[in-house]
Amino acid sequence: MEINTILGVLAGLGVGSLLNTLVSYITSQKSKQKDRRYEEKKTAYIGLLTALHDAAVAPSEANSKAYALWQTKCHIFGSGDVAKFAQRIADTNEGPRDARHEAYESLLRAIRQDLYNT
User: Fold this and answer.
1) Three-class SS of 50-95
2) Which of 70, 93, 96, 112 suits a disulfide with 48, CB 3.0-4.6 Å?
3) How many CB atoms neighbour CB 92 within 10 A?
4) Structural domain tally of the chain?
5) CA distance 40 to 43
6) Is 60 among the domain residues?
7) Contact 88, 109 (CB under 8 A)
8) Which residues constitute the domain of residue 92?
9) Alpha carbon of 115 to those of 8, 30, 46, 111: distances in Å?
10) pTM for this one?
11) Which residues neighbour 113 within 8 Å (Cβ) at sequence distance 6 or greater?
12) Counting beta carbons within 10 angstroms of the beta carbon of residue 27, is it exposed (0 to 12), middle (13 to 18) or buried (19 or more)?
């Protein structure tokens, strides 16, 4: 009887250990995925802001295309609000400075909010 009890306890510990390993693995994978998503967003947003700066400092077709590329990456990895305000910046390029400044401030707010929520 004692051997059966000991074997039962050992088997129970094995199942518990297996469940603990499984839960740890799932938690680790979710954490890695969340970290990767954050890094993808951060990279896209920094690239977008850098391209925006380059286009403002040295307007050219190449810098406009670079902005469009980063804007597309933000459509893929970023939030809908970030994509919307990135497009609004492009749309207000030739418009009044107030509208462009408002679009820029809205873009920064949307980026902050998206990274904070990630």
Assistant:
1) HHHHHHHHCCCHHHHHHHHHHHHHHHHHCCHHHHHHHHHHHHCCCC
2) 70
3) 17
4) 1
5) 5
6) yes
7) no
8) 35-117
9) 49, 17, 12, 6
10) 0.78
11) 79, 81
12) exposed
